[in-house]
Write a structure and sequence with these properties.
By secondary structure, the protein is α/β, with parallel strands linked by helices. It has 9 helices and 8 strands. It has a single domain, classed as Aldolase class I (TIM Barrel). An 8-stranded parallel β-sheet has the order 1-8-7-6-5-4-3-2. It is globular. The model has no long low-confidence stretch (mean pLDDT 97). The protein binds D-xylitol-5-phosphate and zinc ion (ZN). It catalyses: D-ribulose 5-phosphate = D-xylulose 5-phosphate.
Length: 228
Amino acid sequence: MAYTAKIGPSILSSDLSQLGGECERMMECGADYLHLDVMDGHFVPNITFGHPMVECLRRCIGPDPFFDMHMMVSRPEQWVKPMAAAGANQYTFHLEATTNPGNLIKEIRESGMKVGLAIKPGTTVEELAPWAGQIDMALVMTVEPGFGGQKFMEDMMPKVSWLRGQFPSLDIEVDGGVGPDSIHRCAEAGANMIVSGSAVVSSDDPRSVIALLKNVVIEAIQKRSLDR
Ligand code: DX5
Ligand code: ZN
């Protein structure tokens, strides 16, 4: 089985005035990567930050941490080159935001980044499927994108199970309301990249939460490989 368990804290719910320190803290607590939420106030009703912030974070934290850019923006095409130059590792765009996913995938690859493709709760997984062979990661949103701290949508899990059945080695990420209460559902369905915002960042003991989330996913992956 090609995929492994990875936990990527979303720093959206952290103290944004201390973002560099918060990113460092998450890596020290065992994060496998950082999930950075870019919002433009148009694709979603909220604004966060853009590539200048990513450039500063990269400078602050060094070359190693993997930045998964969750691009909740209209016209995602326009930020591919600036994000690559700023030090992003993966460019995860929304299928709903573009009319030409094939071309965007190509541009992201040519910029040297990995490709993630995200779908909102209202988008079917069959719409994503034609692109699954060309991407590195599929992101199944488990809340409506725009805000941290929302309730996990368990009814998104059939999408994850379907994808895992069809694409056994694809990285599948879940994002939104994921924490100790919902991780079992995600892991059983076949997700292996776990975004967790408030459950990790607001915890008194982020290291333990990250370890717990990771262990649940590792166990599910081991069980899946034994069942095969
Ligand atoms: C929501 C963002 C998420 C969010 C996750 O639009 O994409 O990454 O910050 O935060 P929690 O885990 O608190 O839902
Ligand atoms: Zn996100």
